[in-house]
């Protein structure tokens, strides 16, 4: 069941990527005149006399990207147009919406494949990896026997056995001594200061 689900997930992800690539390849080639979404001229005009600053956008070709073609309606009378246009800064901007769409489709397909894989791991994997009812009690019995043998084993008085429990106990005793020493020094300093 898990291999079938994994194969289905891989097929879905590969089919989504194939569709995205085909839409890129089969999309109409870039024309000489780009679509109105892909090009624009942006003019930023600062405040001039009693007129506040404004940003103008218009879909025009690169050769027409200037204040006279973009700023409509002209906020100043005819004799101030040249002075107003000298203050404006116009930039031609171009983008490819097709490339943006393809990148978004690829991104969403990868995220979708990862979400499907996460759903597989959360829902199906625990069902596949059920703990075996026979091996679990045997494992618990082995742990209990190990614990009993460690507790029953006598420790030699001259040489100390190097078990995990004894190391932990030794570290705990050292820690307790350090805490006692710290308490003494803190209380002694407190008495000296007061």
UniProtKB/TrEMBL annotation:
Keywords linked to the UniProt accession: Membrane, Signal, Transmembrane, Transmembrane helix
Database matches in InterPro entries: TMEM9/TMEM9B
Record has NADP as a keyword: no
Leader sequence segment: 1-32
Entry superkingdom: Eukaryota
Family stated for the protein in its record: Belongs to the TMEM9 family.
Protein name per Swiss-Prot or TrEMBL: TMEM9 protein
């Amino acid at each position: 069941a898990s291999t079938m689900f994994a194969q289905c997930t891989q097929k879905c992800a590969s089919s989504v990527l194939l569709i995205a690539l085909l839409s890129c390849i089969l999309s109409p080639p870039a024309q000489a005149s780009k679509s109105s979404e892909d090009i624009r001229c942006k003019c930023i005009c600062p405040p001039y006399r009693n007129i506040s600053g404004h940003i103008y956008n218009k879909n025009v070709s690169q050769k027409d990207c200037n204040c006279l073609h973009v700023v409509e309606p002209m906020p100043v009378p005819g004799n101030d147009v040249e002075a107003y246009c000298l203050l404006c800064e116009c930039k031609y901007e171009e983008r490819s919406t097709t490339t943006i769409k393809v990148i978004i489709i690829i991104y969403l397909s990868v995220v979708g494949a990862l979400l499907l894989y996460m759903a597989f791991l959360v829902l199906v994997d625990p069902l596949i990896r059920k703990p075996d009812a026979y091996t679990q009690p045997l494992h618990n019995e082995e742990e209990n026997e190990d614990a009993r043998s460690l507790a029953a084993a006598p420790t030699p008085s001259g040489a100390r056995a190097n078990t995990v429990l004894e190391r932990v106990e030794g570290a705990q005793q050292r820690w307790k001594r350090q805490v006692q020493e710290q308490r003494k020094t803190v209380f002694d300093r407190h008495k000296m200061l007061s």
